[in-house]
Each structure stands twice: as structure tokens, then as C-alpha cells.
Amino acid sequence: MELDYDLESIQGMRTALKRAKAAQKEYESFTQEQVDRIVTAVAEAAHAKARSLAEKAVEETGMGVVEHKTIKNQVGSKDVYESIKNEKTVGVIYRDTAKKVTEFAYPFGVVAAIIPTTNPTSTAIYKTLISLKTRNAIVVSPHPSAVKCTIAALKICHDAAVQAGAPEGIVGWISKPSMPATTELIQHRDTSVILATGGGGLVRAAYSSGKPAYGVGPGNVPVYLEKSCQVKKAVQMVMDSKTFDNGTICATEQAIVVDQNIKEMTVRELKNQRAYFLEGEEKEKVAAVLSPAPGKINPKIVGRPATTIAQMAGVNVPSDTRVLIAEETRVGKDVPFSLEKLSPVFALYTVKDVDQAKAQCIELLNLGGRGHSLSIHTSDDQIAEMFGHEMPVSRLMVNTLSSIGAVGATTNLKPSLTLGCGSYGGNITSDNITARHLVNIKRLAYGVKDVEIPKPSATVQSPKQADPEENDLEKVISEVLKKVDSEEVDPQKVSAIVGKVLQKYQ
Questions:
Q1: What pLDDT shows up at residue 466?
Q2: Is 229 assigned a catalytic role?
Q3: pLDDT one-digit tens code per residue, 272-289
Q4: Which of 149, 229, 250, 361 is catalytic?
Q5: Most buried of the four, 361, 464, 486, 499, by CB within 10 Å?
Q6: For the Aldehyde dehydrogenase domain, which residue ranges apply (predicted)?
Q7: For 151, what's the count of Cα atoms within 13 Å in the CB-facing half-sphere?
Q8: In which band, very low, low, confident or very high, does the pLDDT at 490 lie, cut at 50, 70 and 90?
Q9: Nearest to residue 126, comparing CAs of 192, 36, 47, 23?
Q10: Alpha helices per DSSP H over 134-275
């Protein structure tokens, strides 16, 4: 009998989760040396296949650029490995002899990982590495549009881990992904923690699952070209960043905010860098393709070249066009160019000074990027620091490519492909998610202070509230005693009264 697709998907998930749980129980007893040997083997195997996995991802999804996805895979394997290789994640990880506190690491258990179609192989590698480093197992739900390339990356990681001594099944996946299977995965009793990188619906589902979860919000990243910046260099970095993998990294710049003092020079440099400015009917046509409904981005434009997007809109542009730009004055769901587009398309806003720039950036972030990232190009460190204080973002890149700077490629931020948005974005952390987020810490603490506990002081007892029944009883007894005094006694009544009194106060 042939199973229904969703049933087969759910059964595959349950099988992978069962194997992962059993493997993790065994893996939990491994030493730091064993764990590090496995993590090293996985990182090396994935790095060696960075190019071929990039080719598979572009071929399957139609998104991005092979050379750029190769770099992503290298960041997700080698750079992530270098950032976590020396971390202690087994046994005693910290000891303070003076304060008599000792910290021990212990794993969560099984990590449920959701992988986006925009970064299907690099994210799978990175999440596997940080899971294995912390003695967790991992079960992955690939995006249906990128299932083949994601599983190819996971198989490389699994086989390398097993060859280095890890238990079979320590890395698992849903071969036929579906929403019902993913939903059950993140809610299953055997799932311990969730790493959700994907659309808003899946992230909300992760946070609603009742499990610990790391989810990330959208990244509608503004880039501010402040008047003191080196315009030519800044524009080149902004263009290189925007076209990196056709804009599929969530930290990629989405809107240029430029000081009016340098606008003319900036526009000239953008055109020199093969940006095409849309006006009038051309702008309207591209806007309609970008967002068929208010606040919604057309998934068919994500990760596609600028020339392809123009062609979809029926707009003729030079064949070497790298980026499409439209000048805007408004921000809103009904302004397609102001949204997070995940493609080489920019909105351009002109501001008169720093205060207006701050207001413009906040308005863009409030539309859908609060807590994520912001980029600024300036020669004035005080302005950069002011933005650091005042912008509602978790990372602010200065004079670099925002897309790969945020993930740690051109900055000293932790290499990561899941970028927390903090409380600004409704996330539990503002960090670049890495191995330390997947390890628990227990603490052994000796008593070091003598405390004398004071004895309770004597207190005045409040008068007991009179019980109506007791009052009645006392009245009857009083009457009986009067009768006793006058020798009018009913022995049975006295016996009943005494019995009642004894029962009351026993």
C-alpha cells in the first residue's frame, strides 16, 4: 500500500527522531577529545565539498550565485569551526577556586533545525557543527524547494561524523519535508530545542511549540551613507554586498539612506557600478512584480539577478545591470521598494542631516526589520556610536559589507547563519547563534558565608473568632448548670451535651 505523502513525511520524521535520540544518549558520554575529533572531521568534509554543494543549491533552487554560495559554505564550515574549536563543551568548563563555584556543561538532547531555501547548504552545515560540538543530535527539516541539496550536505556531515566515531543517526533529516511533519518535529516530546531559520510563520510556530527555541526575524536593513564617508569605496561595498548571492542573506542592505550633501556623487558612483535607476512606468512595473499584494514579496524574485527581475516586469535594462534602484520618499507595506526584498533591488532615500537619517532608518526597521541589523558608512566615529546607542538593532556594521559582515566574514562577530534579533524583534537573544547557545550549564557552589538565621519574635495572638456553634453550646451548658444548681436535671440530656462537647474538642 502506498502511503499518503504527508503520512510518509511524518513517519520519516519520527524514524529520524527516534534514531537521533538513541544516538544522542550514546554521544552524551563522549569525552571532549572524542567530540572535537568528530567536529573537526565534519568541518573538513563539508569545507572540501563547498563548491559542489553550492552548485547543487543553485541548480535546485534557481537562487543565488555559485561562487558566492561557495563562500557561504566555507563560512558555515571552516569559519564556524575555527570560532568554536577551542570551546569546552564537556564536563567541567569553568572553575573558580576562590569563589568555590564549578560549572559543568551538559547537552540539550535533540536539536530540531529548520533550514531556509535561501541558504540551504551553508545553514545545514553550520547547525550540524554547533549541535555536534555540544553533544547534541540534530534532525533537520529542509525547505521543500531545496531538499536535495540540503540532504546532500547533511549526508556529508553524517558520514564524516560516523567515520570519526559518532553513533549512526546522530545527524538526521526529513527526506520528504512537509508542514505537518515539521510541525510535529518541533512539538515532539523527543525534541529538546529548536533552531528556526526561515519564514515568519515557521519562526512563530517554533516559539509557540512549548520548547526552547531560537528563531530569527526579518532583516529590512537600511544602509546610511553619512556625508563624511568615502563615497566611492562605500558605494562599491554596498553594491558588492547587495549582489552577493543575489541578496539572499537576511543581513543584506535593503534601502540606501544618503545625505543630500553627497547624493549627486553617490548616484554617479552607483551608476558607475552598473546600478539602473527606475523611474515612472518602469518603477511601477517592477513594483508590481516585487509585491503582488501589500506587504508580500513575490517569492519568484528572491535570489534572482537584477536583469531577470527587470525582464519579469517587462522592463529593458542593460545586460550588465547589477542592481535596480528606485527613489522613494515613503515607507509602508504599500511601497514595495521599502520592503525586505532578498534580491538585488534597492530603495533610495535622501535626508538632509543625521537626525532625519535616524528617523528614516527607524521607520524602515519598524516596517519589518526591528532588532536585526543596520549598516553605516562614515568617517565620524561619534556618529557611528550614536547610531549604536539609538538604533533598535542587534548588530550595526560600520564601513563594511553588511551581508557578510553580519555573519562574521568581514568582522569579528561570531560566524553564524542564524542572527538573533533580541527583544526588539521578539527573539530570546540578540546574539549570532553559535555553540554556546546549545549547551546547558549546571553549577556546583560551596557555602562560603555564615548566616545567622534570626529566631521568630513573640507575637500577640489575635483573639480567636467565636464559632456560632460553640456559642450555642456554651449557652446550653450554662442553662444545664443552672438546672443542676436547682436540681432540675435530665441525665440523658446531660449525657448528650457532654458527648457533643467531647466530639467538638477531641
A1: 52
A2: no
A3: 999 999 999 999 999 999
A4: 250
A5: 361
A6: 14-274
A7: 14
A8: low
A9: 47
A10: 147-163, 179-187, 200-207, 231-243, 263-272
Which residues, 6 or more positions from 98, have their beta carbon under 8 angstroms from its beta carbon?
Answer: none
- Overall size of the chain counted in residues: 506
pLDDT at residue 167, as a whole number: 98
Give the pLDDT mean for 445-466: 79
* Helix, strand or coil, per DSSP, at residue 352: coil
Q: Which helix (H) or strand (E) holds 365?
A: helix 354-368
Edge to edge, the sheet with strand 101-107 lists 91-96, 101-107, 439-445
Cβ proximity of 206 and 125 under 8 Å: no
Q: What is the mean pLDDT of the chain?
A: 92
75 contacts: CB under 8 Å, gap ≥ 6? 122, 126, 404, 407, 408, 409, 415, 417
**Phi-psi group of 314: left, alpha or beta (phi > 0 → left; psi -120 to 50 → alpha; rest → beta):** left
Whole-number Å distance between alpha carbons of 172 and 20: 6
**In contact, 97 and 113? CB cutoff 8 Å:** no
Query: Got the DSSP string for 240-308?
Result: HHHHGGGG-STTSEEEEEEEGGGHHHHHHHHHHTTEEEE-HHHHHHHHHHH-SBTTB--GGGTT--HHH
Amino acid at 95: R
Q: Name the segment(s) of the chain with CATH classification 3.40.309.10.
A: 221-413
Rounded Cα–Cα distance for residues 90 and 155 (Å): 25
- Percent above pLDDT 90 for the chain: 84
Cα–chain-centroid distance for residue 170? 22
In sign, the C-alpha dihedral spanning 409, 411, 415, 419 is: negative
Q: Which CATH class is domain 221-413?
A: alpha beta
Closest CA to 370 of 423, 323, 327, 318: 423
Delimiting residues of CATH 3.40.605.10 domain(s) in the chain: 5-216+436-445
Report the phi/psi class of residue 319: left, alpha or beta, with left for phi > 0 and alpha for psi in -120 to 50. alpha
Q: CA-based diameter of the chain, in Å?
A: 126
Find cell 532578498 and name the residue: 342
